[in-house]
Amino acid sequence: MTTVTEKNTGTVLHLSALTQYFIPLGNYFFPILIWAFRKDKSQFVDYTGKQALNFQLSMLLYSLLLAVIAIPTLLYSIFSNVTFHQFEQGDFQLEQLTAGNITGIATVALTAVFLFIALKIAEFFLIIYAAVKTSNGEQYRFPMSISFLK
Q1: Residue 69: what pLDDT?
Q2: What percent of the chain has pLDDT over 70?
Q3: 3-state secondary structure (DSSP) of residue 42
Q4: Over the range 21-48, which residues count as b (16 or more CB within 10 Å of their CB) and which as e?
Q5: FRET partner for 125 with CA separation of 20 to 30 A, picked from 33, 57, 82, 116?
């Protein structure tokens, strides 16, 4: 049986990950602080903290993977038709970036960008959903979460 304090702590722990939109790395810093101070006092808070941190680390891993795919392929597809001499002389013109000049590889990069946006939207709603479940006293496990902390 979880107490109201444990439920509230778990809910705040999940919602503290939303500080990433205001404070850089807040989605790691604040959950770690709350979890570190309360993990020994409650098994429910310990489980909730591990799930929240595992989810945030998984989202970081997925985001980095998408960035590794998107950034180089997008740069390659944009600058593949521009010679170094044109770029050095300032002869680079936006007319060279027509749909015929940008290769199909740009589709891969744009797909990765759209997946990143979808990932961030899903992350936002999953955090809210986890906070609601936790406030009801349920132990929530995030989908797509890798268990870094067991």
Answers
A1: 84
A2: 81
A3: coil
A4: eeeeeebbebbbebbeebeeebebbbbb
A5: 33
DSSP state of 40: T
Domain segments of the chain as ranges: 4-135
d(CA 2, CA 7): 7
Residue 98 has pLDDT above 60, yes or no: no
The number of beta carbons lying within 10 Å of the beta carbon of residue 55 is: 26
The confidence score (pLDDT) of residue 72 equals 83
How large a percentage of the chain has pLDDT more than 90? Answer: 63
